[in-house]
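Researcher: Go.
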Amino acid sequence: MTPVKPAAAIQMVDLKGQYLHIKTAVDAAIQEVIDSTAFIKGRAVQDFAGELASYTGAAHVVPCANGTDALQIALMALDLQPGDEVITPSFTYFATAEVIALLGLKPVFVDVDPDTFNISIEAVARAITARTRAIVPVHLFGQSADMESLLQLAQQHNIAIIEDNAQALGGSYTFADGRTVHTGTMGHMASTSFFPSKNLGCYGDGGALFTNDEALFTAMNMIANHGQQKKYHHERIGCNSRLDTIQAAILRVKLPQLDQYCAARIAVAEQYNTAFAENPNIKTPYKDPKVTHVYHQYTMQLAGHINRAQLQARLKEAGIPSMIYYPVPCHMQEAMKPFVPAGLQLPVSEQLSRTVLSLPIHTEMEEEMIQYISTMVNQYTQS
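Model: Structure:
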């Protein structure tokens, strides 16, 4: 029996619905910035940095223009040399690898864990060489990588770790000794993005860096501001990467809602998991027991015989959007050919790129939407 299609349009992310719940506060915050005319480096920027540091437990936060800049600034702060190697997973958004290459460094692609989709610790261990200077684990789709194992490995080899926390802000990781900490506070540095669709998103571009290291904090602050601490006195080569005041003001309104936003996403994911539990053609997202998974995406794996393109087309006809994150692993991208050894195969990443599919998940999803989507997916994958 085909369920009744919800009256409201189903979206991958409902930014307008979320905005309407906080409209009065957001509008007032924007108006306050306009009235002050402090559009760059206004008070809200540093206020937000302090509040985000308090929320995550990081000692320092450096706001910047976007998540890609954040990764670049973090790498620049390490003063790496051309040709130095940086290990990163291939199954991730291209920006993670892009900034490594942009700086004249060598991206070294490794495979991911088939369950968590996060960087494989065993693969990292095999990839370390005398030229390895950094590792960039990606907390993919909202779930932390195995940071305890990674930190131990990095310490053994004196390698820096930069967490790509663009998809997992609000998530956490529990160590063997019982300590539970926020993602983005475990490595030497971390980056995040406030792209509108993120769990904590602004209304344009925005990003931030995290560190507990005073020297790295100073370096990142300088790099983001043309390499200067004192105006017109440039101590190092930097860039121009700022979070504008209006975006900071919006993020200050949304930050107190982040735990609620994450809880809403978790609730949607749990309903999906229940609905697909008996479907032999769907593998639901694995949840590491050490981790609070905040489901930036709900990404399932389809059985090999399922025609993904056909499934997407049928879902679209039913008014259900879906996305493929990511259809081409980084090591198979044309732009990365100069950095990839001939014949490199990363079978898990390649398999995932052929079989994953992400369904709508956001803070405004209603019960009838989840039921409709689940029913239609089950019908199309079992018929």
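Model: The chain is about 40% helix and 15% strand.
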